[in-house]
Amino acid sequence: MNKEEFVYYLKTLGVTCTKAQLEKLEIYKDFLIKYNTHTNLTAIKEENAIYLKHFYDSLTIAENIKEQNKVLDIGTGAGFPGMVLAIFCENTKFVLLDSNNKKIAFLTELQKKLQLKNVFLIHARAEEYVKNHLEEFDIVTSRAVADLRILLELSLPALKVKGLFIPLKGNIEKELENTQETLDILNGKIIEKKEFVLPKENSFRTILLIEHTKSTDKFYPRSFDKILKKPLVKRK
Ligand code: SAM
Fold first, then answer.
1. What is the pTM of this model?
2. Protein residue whose Cα sits closest to atom 11 of ligand 1
3. CATH superfamily, region 66-229
């Protein structure tokens, strides 16, 4: 997807792109390619692929972000989807979190270059950060970080009641098979499932909107090894 195609396909998402936003993405793309030559940030290194698989893909959830929202992006990596969304939603506050400090160092330099005042970078593990930031966010996003059941435990406690967790996924059928109990325990409800293919190369995508229906027990999230080893099941 070249730059012109990117602008065209964004319109089909209902997203318009200003000259200033396009320039910021150009700086982002150049800096990502350059930084990636000495620090491993992403396997996607080619210009057109960055526009499609990082920039366009991140913006497929843009319509769900509202002004004055506070958004947490868990496992943001090189800024996807959080940093891209922040370029398009300057009146929304984005907390981009990753446990890998190399990614946060890259994002710190990038944020300076892009002069984004609505981005806050956090080097931490999600389960530890969320413990101290319960019910703080309107939206939590996450792409390519973990299985849905794990993500639910990391994200739902961080959301205000009625807030939305929006994971960006590929084919999610298998992961969905065993999530109902986790949703019940943490007070989450899937209110929408959007399925589509990416333009040009047709890879399958699923976006879920999961509402935090009421406060989650403060016992969650547990430590990461417990989340991994002991999937949530209701205590009888
Ligand atoms: N979201 C980005 C994307 O779509 O390109 C990055 C995906 S990368 C495969 C997964 C990222 O999640 C890594 O940068 C890793 O450091 C981070 N991560 C994994 N588990 C985490 C946790 N418990 N807390 C914070 N970050 C985590």
1. 0.96
2. 75
3. Vaccinia Virus protein VP39 (3.40.50.150)
Q: Extract the runs of DSSP E, i.e. beta strands, from 38-148.
A: 70-74, 93-98, 119-123, 137-143
| Whether the predicted pLDDT of 188 surpasses 60 | yes
Of 61, 59, 66, the residue nearest 92 (C-alpha): 66
Task: Among 41, 95, 99, 149, say which to mutate for ligand 1: greatest number of ligand atoms within 8 Å of CB.
Answer: 99
How remote is the CA of residue 221 from the centroid of ligand 1, in Å? 17
How is residue 187 written in tokens?
């007070």
The ranges assigned to domains in the chain are: 66-229
Rounded to whole angstroms, what are the CA distances from 105 to 49, 60, 97, 140, 196? 23, 26, 12, 22, 33
How close is the Cα of 150 to the center of ligand 1, in Å? 12
What integer pLDDT is reported at residue 233 of this predicted model? 66
Q: Is 50 left (phi over 0), alpha (psi -120 to 50) or beta?
A: alpha
